[in-house]
Amino acid sequence: MKKDIHPESYRTVVFKDFSCDEAWLGRSCAPSRDKIVWEDGNEYPLIKLEISSASHPFFTGKMKFVDTAGRIDKFNKKFAKFAQKS
């Protein structure tokens, strides 16, 4: 095992999946500028997630499309000139 390759600054953070409004406490060394007050009244750094096991179709069994980057609108705008007119 190599020494001194793992970070030592793990701290308690809140992970929040904004697609289903689910949140939980965990430990991470990921940087975060945002903070949130948790149920226990303490303030923790907030790690924002777009998808997690709480919202992923594999774990939930529900198909739900999450378009966070506006890819569909971008695609439709780009290829609108090729659409057949009837």
Rg (CA only): 19 Å
Number of helices: 2
Rounded mean pLDDT is: 82
Give the low-confidence spans. none
Main beta sheet: 4 strands, mixed
Which structural class matches the secondary elements?
alpha+beta
Shape designation? elongated
Helix content: 10-25%
Cross-sheet strand order for the largest sheet: 2-1-4-3
Please trace the helix and strand order, writing H or E for each element. Answer: EEEEHH
How many beta strands in the DSSP annotation? 4
Distance between the termini: 66 Å
Explain the overall architecture:
By secondary structure, the chain is α+β, with helices and mostly antiparallel strands. It is 14% helix and 28% strand. It is built from two helices and four strands. The longest helix is centred in the C-terminal third of the chain and has 8 residues, at 71-78. It is elongated, with a radius of gyration of 19 Å. The termini are far apart.
Brief summary:
By secondary structure, the chain is α+β, with helices and mostly antiparallel strands.
Topology:
Elements: E1 11-17, E2 22-28, E3 35-37, E4 43-49, H1 57-60, H2 71-78
Parallel strand pairs: 1-4
Antiparallel strand pairs: 1-2, 3-4
